[in-house]
Amino acid sequence: MTDRNLLERAAAAMSNSYSPYSRFPVGAAIECSDGSVFTGCNVENCALGCTMCAERVAVGNAVSAGHTDFVRLAITAESSNYCFPCGTCRQVLMEFAPDLELLCARGDGRYVSYNLRNMMSSPFTKEHME
């Protein structure tokens, strides 16, 4: 799957966003090492702490289908700025794939690529639990 294909899957997921409070729809698509792809969109709640980000919805969909071997994540929003995962999403992603490639897009389709480990200094990992 090309970067563009993965970004298109994220954009398609964005169309299902439930974002009446922020009015900031986000879509995500996470690719597994076997080529399978799981998508997610943000799902807001009036109790804002209950809101689920698109990235975590995509991860939850993948994990519930038995997949935890992530290699790339595309995230997009209708914004003039690149859409990056929030800190909570970065922590969740670190749990499964510290070297995950992140494709962060903006509304015009342009994107940048980052490595999750480089975006997350001093993460809390499984090793801290030992």
- Which strand-content bin applies to the residues? 15-25%
Number of strands: 5
Outline type: globular
Low-pLDDT segments = none
Helix content: 25-40%
**Pairing-aware structural class of the strands and helices?**
alpha+beta
Strand/helix succession: HEEHEHEEH
Task: Give the termini separation.
Answer: 37 Å
Biggest beta sheet summary: 5 strands, mixed
Strand order of the largest sheet: 2-1-3-4-5
Radius of gyration: 14 Å
Please report the number of helical segments: 4
**Mean pLDDT, all residues:** 95
What does this structure look like?
There is one protein chain. The chain is α+β, with helices and mostly antiparallel strands and 130 residues long. It has four helices and five strands. Strands 2-1-3-4-5 form a five-stranded mixed beta sheet. Helix 3 links the parallel strand 3 (70-77) and strand 4. The longest helix is centred in the N-terminal third of the chain and has 12 residues, at 3-14. It starts with a helix and ends in an 11-residue tail after the last helix. The relative contact order is 0.17.
